Amino acid sequence: MSRFKEKYFTMNEQDAAEYALIELDFFKPGSKLICKEIGDGNLNYVFRIIDEKSGESIIIKQAGPVARISDEFKVSIDRNRIESDILKLQYELTDGLVPKVYKYDPIMNCCAMEDLTGHEIMRTALLQHKIFPDFADDISTFMANTLFLTSDVAMNHKDKKALVKNFINPDLCEITEDLVYTEPFYDCSRNDMLQETKDFVSKYFWQDRQLLLETTKLKFEFMTNGQSLLHGDLHTGSIFVKEGSTKIIDPEFAFYGPAGYDVGNILANLVFAYENAEAVMDDGKEKEVYKAWISKMIEDIVELFKQKFSQLWKEKSQEKTANYEGFKEYYIGKIISDAAAVTGCELSRRIIGLAHVNDIISIENIEKRVKAEKVCLVLAKSLILKRESISNGKQFINELEGAVEKIDNQSV
Predict the structure, then answer these.
(1) 80 near 65, Cβ under 8 Å?
(2) For the whole model, what pTM was predicted?
(3) What does the record note on quaternary structure (predicted)?
(4) pLDDT digits over 224-263, tens only?
(5) 139: how many CB neighbours lie within 10 A of its CB?
(6) What CA–CA distance (Å, rounded) separates 332 from 229?
């Protein structure tokens, strides 16, 4: 019997190549496989296996028993099953905006999926200040389809509850509850930031009782509102792009939660790209064009999401009461206000907390980095406190421009 059928163990490159040859019906007999571990995330091991003869390739992703970011996080290896299941579902719901899954192995807790060679991680591309004209359309389609079509508005309620049960994900939800909704808002020992930023945070965040109250409300909303099946970690490091193609990856944080969580996550990470451009690009037309594209993309994502969600509601709503006058507008409005708050929480945790983003930490000029971090934090606080009044994409940009102005004028 194959050793891969006996019990789980963490694979290395040699193991993964052997696994691909023995366990996957993908490569032809006589293939000459080479394997490289390419994972750069916080949790998993990712292997790219290529047949030198044919050029065919595949990805194997294996869940380890602890997070790579820190041994403090003990995470269930069942997350790989969750990721495989949701990728299959998202593939159907979004007409291929995610990679195709070929196999899930419950013993080795790994899945084999389409290799996206030719694409690049969006965060990396944005750090090179590349422009992707189709992205707003693609990501808004992904979010509208996955968030609407898995909700009680569109699904039989019993079928939806069965999905809720299938995607219960307590270990990874706990990471989000801690890193996003709790630790950034007090002087937690795991927080990690520049001293100049910490001095600002101590006064501007941790001593603001209203902010702390609002973040507590948001945490309990995240824990208790099973609205839609979320990706759960939808940032620019979880997206592959190339001209004319967008592929969303890494939905291992998936669970049923408030729909605005996914929307807010991607918006916050585009703000990081905006601030990176402001800090590192030379002044001039190219910089202004790039920043204008980021701003327009943020606005377009919100507006396209609203339009597509509303159209799906018109075409596929199955819940009678959901079509009472005014309810659709209330429902979509609540998603956008939730997204505003989540944008604020994501901005906060990536500056203050344990897990940072290269958009910010790669800014070599410390003075410019501190300024970028302060802009993100001023924006974060504003979006959290004013979330109920945020209803359209232009307001997100207005708040961003207002945060920049406050830092430039030293008025906070």
Answers:
(1) no
(2) 0.93
(3) Homodimer.
(4) 999 999 999 999 999 999 999 999 999 989 999 999 999 9
(5) 28
(6) 16
